[in-house]
Amino acid sequence: MNPVALALHRVPRPLLLLTALALVAGLGAAGYYAPDWSLSIFYLIPIALVAGPLGFRAGLGVSAASAAALTLVESRGTLAHSAPLLPWWNGAAHFAFFAVTSGLLASLQRELDTEERLSRIDPTTGAPNRRAFLEAVAAEIARANRYGKSFAVGVIDLDNFKAINDAYGHEAGDEALRVLVQLLKRNLRNVDLVARLGGDEFGLLLPETGQEGAGIVVGKLQDDYTAAMQKSGRALTFSGGVMVFREPPESVTAALGAADELMYRIKRGRKGGILTATTPIELPAA
């Protein structure tokens, strides 16, 4: 989302609507003192201000207000003296034009929002992708800096995943990924986040979570996933590392790197395990 659209989405809806109506009133006042000057094009500004962020209904309301203001202004001009009904005809035409413009802007914003949302979703599993995960971790670091809350970042990597693809095909591998995401979502809280970082690697973000809690959650998940894979006839496990940050890390890269290091310590030793740690301490021995 571009900076202007993002800023508009952050403005409270009532304030945005009142601002647009105030602009309409200002344009109407300007036209009142200069009725023979056409200001109709400038009414697109308040319409555009609300049609995207607030939707078509809000844009339609501002369109009606704009058309009404233009009609009142034109009823005082020279057109009213030559053809009394002409300003009202023009007002209807203005409203139709503004309404169509409002609909187009609202539709365009919906399409942009959809593209923005899809650009953060992994198409195979339906989980957020790496981009969305990094943004969420950055936001959590900022929150930790502000409020002093701890949080955990985890990295999960499936063991011997290539063997599943080679033996049963890529669709079986994709299904194994989807099962993991479903179990993650079932075991995690609404405030937690699971994302596919790439391949068979997944990231976890657990706000306000300590080492014990993170270990319990990921341990239960591992048991459930192993059981689900055994039930499907495919012996597949995962290795994971979870780092709990009692103090905010320097960057997203540092946070992800710390969890990654824990996960690879498991991978280099016995696969199918979970390693958790808490900062600021030295990492446990492999």
Summarize the structure in words:
With 286 residues, this protein is α+β, with helices and mostly antiparallel strands. The protein is 63% helix and 12% strand. It is built from eleven helices and five strands; from the N terminus they run H-H-H-H-H-H-H-E-H-H-E-E-H-E-H-E. It has helices at residues 3-10, 13-33, 44-54, 56-74, 78-82, 86-118, 130-147, 161-168, 170-187, 211-231, 252-268, and strands spanning 151-158, 193-198, 201-207, 238-245, 274-279. A five-stranded mixed sheet has the order 2-3-1-4-5, with helices on both faces. Helix 11 (252-268) links the parallel strand 4 and strand 5 (274-279). Helix 2 (13-33) packs parallel to helix 4. The protein is elongated. Residues 282-286 have low confidence and may be disordered.
